[in-house]
Amino acid sequence: MFDPVTLSLNVDPLIMSALREDITSEDVSTNSVMPRSCPGTADLICKEDGVICGLQVFARVFELLDPDTQISFDVTEGEAVTKGQHLASVTGDIRIILSGERTALNYLQRMSGIATNARKMSQLLEGTGIRLLDTRKTTPNNRIFEKYAVRIGGGFNHRYNLTDGVMLKDNHIGAAGGVREAVEAAREYAPFVRKIEVETENLDMVREAVEAGADIIMLDNMDHDQMQDAIRLIDGRAEIEISGNVTAERINSIRDLAVDYISSGALTHSSPILDVSLKNLHPID
Protein backbone atom coordinates (compact mmCIF):
# COMPACT_ATOMS: atom_id res chain seq x y z
CA MET A 1 0.00 0.00 0.00
CA PHE A 2 1.01 3.62 -0.47
CA ASP A 3 2.23 5.26 2.73
CA PRO A 4 0.33 8.36 3.98
CA VAL A 5 2.90 10.87 2.66
CA THR A 6 3.05 9.33 -0.81
CA LEU A 7 -0.74 9.07 -0.84
CA SER A 8 -1.34 12.73 -0.03
CA LEU A 9 1.53 14.25 -2.07
CA ASN A 10 1.70 12.04 -5.15
CA VAL A 11 -1.33 9.78 -5.45
CA ASP A 12 -4.27 11.98 -4.44
CA PRO A 13 -3.47 14.78 -6.95
CA LEU A 14 -3.38 12.25 -9.80
CA ILE A 15 -6.69 10.71 -8.76
CA MET A 16 -8.25 14.17 -8.51
CA SER A 17 -6.97 14.98 -11.99
CA ALA A 18 -8.58 11.79 -13.30
CA LEU A 19 -11.86 12.70 -11.63
CA ARG A 20 -11.74 16.22 -13.11
CA GLU A 21 -11.16 14.67 -16.53
CA ASP A 22 -14.37 12.67 -16.11
CA ILE A 23 -16.46 15.42 -14.47
CA THR A 24 -15.75 18.82 -16.00
CA SER A 25 -18.76 20.56 -14.47
CA GLU A 26 -21.28 17.95 -13.34
CA ASP A 27 -22.34 14.33 -13.75
CA VAL A 28 -25.43 14.96 -15.86
CA SER A 29 -26.63 11.34 -15.88
CA THR A 30 -26.44 10.95 -12.12
CA ASN A 31 -27.97 14.35 -11.36
CA SER A 32 -30.85 13.48 -13.69
CA VAL A 33 -31.86 10.29 -11.91
CA MET A 34 -30.66 11.12 -8.39
CA PRO A 35 -31.18 14.83 -7.64
CA ARG A 36 -30.83 14.33 -3.88
CA SER A 37 -28.58 12.38 -1.57
CA CYS A 38 -29.64 8.78 -1.02
CA PRO A 39 -27.69 6.03 0.79
CA GLY A 40 -26.95 2.93 -1.23
CA THR A 41 -24.60 0.04 -1.74
CA ALA A 42 -23.00 -1.80 -4.67
CA ASP A 43 -20.96 -4.98 -5.14
CA LEU A 44 -17.51 -5.21 -6.69
CA ILE A 45 -17.39 -8.44 -8.72
CA CYS A 46 -14.43 -10.11 -10.44
CA LYS A 47 -15.19 -11.25 -13.99
CA GLU A 48 -12.03 -13.25 -14.72
CA ASP A 49 -9.17 -14.99 -12.92
CA GLY A 50 -6.13 -12.92 -12.00
CA VAL A 51 -4.31 -10.96 -9.31
CA ILE A 52 -6.10 -8.07 -7.64
CA CYS A 53 -4.16 -4.83 -7.24
CA GLY A 54 -5.12 -1.24 -6.53
CA LEU A 55 -7.67 -1.72 -3.77
CA GLN A 56 -6.39 1.33 -1.89
CA VAL A 57 -6.63 3.48 -5.02
CA PHE A 58 -10.10 2.15 -5.81
CA ALA A 59 -11.27 3.16 -2.34
CA ARG A 60 -9.48 6.49 -2.47
CA VAL A 61 -11.47 7.60 -5.52
CA PHE A 62 -14.71 7.43 -3.55
CA GLU A 63 -13.17 8.81 -0.35
CA LEU A 64 -11.91 11.91 -2.14
CA LEU A 65 -15.41 12.55 -3.45
CA ASP A 66 -16.99 11.89 -0.05
CA PRO A 67 -15.00 10.86 3.06
CA ASP A 68 -18.10 9.13 4.44
CA THR A 69 -18.04 6.47 1.73
CA GLN A 70 -17.36 3.03 3.19
CA ILE A 71 -15.62 0.20 1.31
CA SER A 72 -15.56 -3.28 2.81
CA PHE A 73 -13.08 -5.56 1.04
CA ASP A 74 -13.32 -9.35 1.00
CA VAL A 75 -9.83 -9.72 -0.52
CA THR A 76 -6.36 -8.36 0.17
CA GLU A 77 -3.86 -6.67 -2.13
CA GLY A 78 -2.01 -9.13 -4.35
CA GLU A 79 -4.44 -11.97 -3.75
CA ALA A 80 -5.30 -14.38 -6.54
CA VAL A 81 -8.96 -13.90 -7.48
CA THR A 82 -11.38 -15.90 -9.61
CA LYS A 83 -14.23 -15.23 -11.99
CA GLY A 84 -17.45 -14.46 -10.14
CA GLN A 85 -15.76 -13.73 -6.83
CA HIS A 86 -17.21 -10.97 -4.62
CA LEU A 87 -14.38 -8.53 -3.96
CA ALA A 88 -15.94 -5.67 -2.00
CA SER A 89 -19.02 -3.70 -1.07
CA VAL A 90 -19.17 0.07 -1.59
CA THR A 91 -21.64 1.92 0.65
CA GLY A 92 -22.46 5.61 0.67
CA ASP A 93 -24.28 8.32 -1.23
CA ILE A 94 -25.52 6.74 -4.46
CA ARG A 95 -24.53 9.90 -6.34
CA ILE A 96 -20.92 9.46 -5.22
CA ILE A 97 -20.88 5.78 -6.17
CA LEU A 98 -22.21 6.56 -9.63
CA SER A 99 -19.87 9.48 -10.27
CA GLY A 100 -16.72 7.69 -9.05
CA GLU A 101 -17.45 4.26 -10.49
CA ARG A 102 -15.62 4.50 -13.81
CA THR A 103 -12.50 6.21 -12.51
CA ALA A 104 -12.21 3.74 -9.63
CA LEU A 105 -12.67 0.76 -11.95
CA ASN A 106 -10.21 2.11 -14.49
CA TYR A 107 -7.47 2.22 -11.87
CA LEU A 108 -8.34 -1.17 -10.41
CA GLN A 109 -8.60 -2.93 -13.77
CA ARG A 110 -5.37 -1.46 -15.10
CA MET A 111 -3.34 -2.13 -11.97
CA SER A 112 -4.74 -5.65 -11.57
CA GLY A 113 -3.95 -6.45 -15.19
CA ILE A 114 -0.33 -5.43 -14.74
CA ALA A 115 -0.03 -7.35 -11.47
CA THR A 116 -1.52 -10.44 -13.13
CA ASN A 117 0.99 -10.29 -15.99
CA ALA A 118 3.89 -9.60 -13.62
CA ARG A 119 2.92 -12.61 -11.49
CA LYS A 120 2.82 -14.84 -14.56
CA MET A 121 6.21 -13.65 -15.82
CA SER A 122 7.97 -13.59 -12.46
CA GLN A 123 6.86 -17.17 -11.74
CA LEU A 124 8.66 -18.25 -14.91
CA LEU A 125 11.92 -17.03 -13.33
CA GLU A 126 11.49 -18.80 -9.99
CA GLY A 127 14.61 -20.66 -8.94
CA THR A 128 16.90 -18.79 -11.34
CA GLY A 129 17.93 -15.85 -9.13
CA ILE A 130 17.07 -13.50 -12.00
CA ARG A 131 14.97 -10.46 -11.13
CA LEU A 132 12.17 -9.35 -13.44
CA LEU A 133 12.26 -5.56 -13.95
CA ASP A 134 9.86 -3.05 -15.45
CA THR A 135 10.88 -0.05 -17.58
CA ARG A 136 9.87 3.60 -18.08
CA LYS A 137 7.43 2.54 -20.82
CA THR A 138 4.46 3.58 -18.72
CA THR A 139 1.28 5.56 -19.30
CA PRO A 140 1.94 9.29 -18.72
CA ASN A 141 0.83 10.35 -15.23
CA ASN A 142 0.16 6.73 -14.26
CA ARG A 143 3.72 5.54 -13.61
CA ILE A 144 3.33 5.48 -9.83
CA PHE A 145 0.34 3.14 -10.15
CA GLU A 146 1.81 0.92 -12.85
CA LYS A 147 5.20 0.42 -11.21
CA TYR A 148 3.47 -0.30 -7.90
CA ALA A 149 1.39 -2.97 -9.67
CA VAL A 150 4.56 -4.62 -10.99
CA ARG A 151 5.83 -5.00 -7.42
CA ILE A 152 2.53 -6.43 -6.21
CA GLY A 153 2.74 -9.00 -9.01
CA GLY A 154 6.21 -10.10 -7.91
CA GLY A 155 8.41 -8.03 -10.21
CA PHE A 156 10.91 -5.30 -9.32
CA ASN A 157 11.20 -1.67 -10.35
CA HIS A 158 13.96 -0.39 -12.59
CA ARG A 159 14.70 3.34 -12.18
CA TYR A 160 11.57 5.37 -11.55
CA ASN A 161 12.49 8.34 -13.73
CA LEU A 162 15.38 10.17 -15.35
CA THR A 163 16.60 11.52 -12.01
CA ASP A 164 16.75 8.08 -10.46
CA GLY A 165 19.81 6.66 -12.17
CA VAL A 166 22.23 6.83 -15.11
CA MET A 167 21.34 4.74 -18.15
CA LEU A 168 23.42 5.44 -21.23
CA LYS A 169 21.38 4.37 -24.24
CA ASP A 170 22.33 4.40 -27.91
CA ASN A 171 21.56 8.08 -28.40
CA HIS A 172 23.48 9.11 -25.28
CA ILE A 173 26.44 7.12 -26.57
CA GLY A 174 26.10 8.70 -29.99
CA ALA A 175 25.93 12.18 -28.50
CA ALA A 176 29.02 11.56 -26.35
CA GLY A 177 31.05 10.04 -29.17
CA GLY A 178 31.30 6.48 -27.89
CA VAL A 179 30.77 4.14 -24.97
CA ARG A 180 33.96 5.07 -23.13
CA GLU A 181 33.34 8.79 -23.56
CA ALA A 182 29.77 8.45 -22.30
CA VAL A 183 30.76 6.43 -19.22
CA GLU A 184 33.61 8.81 -18.36
CA ALA A 185 31.33 11.83 -18.69
CA ALA A 186 28.69 10.21 -16.49
CA ARG A 187 31.29 9.21 -13.90
CA GLU A 188 32.49 12.79 -13.77
CA TYR A 189 29.03 14.39 -13.58
CA ALA A 190 26.73 12.02 -11.74
CA PRO A 191 26.76 11.68 -7.93
CA PHE A 192 29.04 8.87 -6.81
CA VAL A 193 26.09 6.98 -5.29
CA ARG A 194 24.55 6.47 -8.75
CA LYS A 195 25.30 3.29 -10.65
CA ILE A 196 26.04 3.67 -14.34
CA GLU A 197 24.27 1.35 -16.76
CA VAL A 198 25.18 1.07 -20.43
CA GLU A 199 22.93 -0.28 -23.17
CA THR A 200 24.90 -2.42 -25.63
CA GLU A 201 23.89 -3.92 -28.95
CA ASN A 202 26.97 -5.95 -29.91
CA LEU A 203 30.13 -7.48 -28.44
CA ASP A 204 32.31 -4.48 -29.31
CA MET A 205 30.06 -2.24 -27.22
CA VAL A 206 30.08 -4.80 -24.40
CA ARG A 207 33.89 -4.84 -24.42
CA GLU A 208 34.02 -1.03 -24.31
CA ALA A 209 31.51 -0.91 -21.47
CA VAL A 210 33.52 -3.39 -19.41
CA GLU A 211 36.78 -1.57 -20.02
CA ALA A 212 35.15 1.77 -19.14
CA GLY A 213 33.98 0.37 -15.78
CA ALA A 214 30.21 0.33 -16.27
CA ASP A 215 28.35 -0.99 -13.23
CA ILE A 216 25.53 -2.62 -15.21
CA ILE A 217 25.62 -3.74 -18.82
CA MET A 218 22.37 -4.19 -20.70
CA LEU A 219 22.32 -6.71 -23.54
CA ASP A 220 19.72 -5.20 -25.81
CA ASN A 221 18.00 -7.22 -28.53
CA MET A 222 20.82 -9.76 -28.83
CA ASP A 223 20.26 -13.35 -29.88
CA HIS A 224 20.99 -16.23 -27.51
CA ASP A 225 24.50 -16.96 -28.80
CA GLN A 226 25.48 -13.29 -28.66
CA MET A 227 24.27 -13.04 -25.07
CA GLN A 228 26.28 -16.12 -24.06
CA ASP A 229 29.40 -14.60 -25.63
CA ALA A 230 28.73 -11.29 -23.89
CA ILE A 231 28.31 -12.98 -20.49
CA ARG A 232 31.66 -14.73 -20.91
CA LEU A 233 33.25 -11.44 -21.93
CA ILE A 234 31.88 -9.56 -18.93
CA ASP A 235 33.05 -12.38 -16.64
CA GLY A 236 31.50 -11.01 -13.45
CA ARG A 237 32.96 -7.51 -13.83
CA ALA A 238 29.50 -5.91 -14.08
CA GLU A 239 25.90 -6.81 -13.40
CA ILE A 240 24.03 -7.94 -16.50
CA GLU A 241 20.53 -7.08 -17.71
CA ILE A 242 18.74 -8.58 -20.70
CA SER A 243 16.26 -6.35 -22.51
CA GLY A 244 14.38 -6.11 -25.77
CA ASN A 245 11.04 -7.64 -26.70
CA VAL A 246 10.84 -9.68 -23.49
CA THR A 247 7.45 -11.36 -23.17
CA ALA A 248 6.24 -14.30 -21.12
CA GLU A 249 6.68 -16.49 -24.21
CA ARG A 250 10.35 -15.50 -24.57
CA ILE A 251 11.39 -15.86 -20.93
CA ASN A 252 11.64 -19.65 -21.13
CA SER A 253 14.27 -19.33 -23.85
CA ILE A 254 16.51 -16.96 -21.85
CA ARG A 255 16.00 -18.05 -18.24
CA ASP A 256 19.04 -20.35 -18.50
CA LEU A 257 21.44 -17.45 -18.97
CA ALA A 258 23.65 -16.35 -16.07
CA VAL A 259 22.36 -12.79 -15.77
CA ASP A 260 21.09 -10.64 -12.92
CA TYR A 261 18.04 -8.98 -14.46
CA ILE A 262 15.54 -9.31 -17.26
CA SER A 263 13.59 -6.14 -18.05
CA SER A 264 10.29 -6.03 -19.89
CA GLY A 265 8.46 -2.98 -21.17
CA ALA A 266 5.53 -5.28 -21.93
CA LEU A 267 4.76 -5.46 -18.21
CA THR A 268 3.36 -1.94 -18.32
CA HIS A 269 2.69 -1.12 -21.96
CA SER A 270 1.00 -4.34 -23.06
CA SER A 271 -0.70 -5.96 -20.07
CA PRO A 272 -4.44 -6.40 -20.66
CA ILE A 273 -6.79 -5.21 -17.95
CA LEU A 274 -8.36 -7.56 -15.43
CA ASP A 275 -12.11 -7.31 -15.91
CA VAL A 276 -13.95 -6.26 -12.74
CA SER A 277 -17.35 -4.65 -12.42
CA LEU A 278 -19.46 -2.68 -9.93
CA LYS A 279 -22.91 -4.23 -9.86
CA ASN A 280 -26.20 -4.40 -7.99
CA LEU A 281 -26.34 -0.76 -6.92
CA HIS A 282 -29.48 -0.17 -4.87
CA PRO A 283 -30.80 2.16 -2.16
CA ILE A 284 -30.64 1.12 1.49
CA ASP A 285 -32.47 2.40 4.54
Record keyword descriptors for this entry.
285 residues, alpha/beta, Aldehyde Oxidoreductase, domain 3, TIM Barrel, 6-stranded parallel β-sheet, 4-stranded antiparallel β-sheet, 11 helices, 12 strands, elongated
If you had to describe this structure to a student in words, what would you say it looks like?
- This protein has 285 residues and is an alpha/beta fold.
- The chain has two domains: 130 residues, Aldehyde Oxidoreductase, domain 3 (Alpha-Beta Complex); 143 residues, Aldolase class I (TIM Barrel).
- 44% of the residues lie in helices and 20% in strands.
- The protein contains eleven helices and twelve strands.
- The strands form three sheets. It has a six-stranded parallel beta sheet. A four-stranded antiparallel beta sheet has the order 3-5-1-12, covered by helices on one side.
- Helix 9 links the parallel strand 9 and strand 10.
- Helix 7 packs parallel to helix 8.
How many separate helices? 11
Distance between the termini: 33 Å
CATH topology type of the largest domain = TIM Barrel
Order of helices and strands: HHEEHEEEHEHEHHEHEHEHEHE
CATH class value of the largest domain: Alpha Beta
- Tell me the count of domains: 2
Strand runs, count:
12
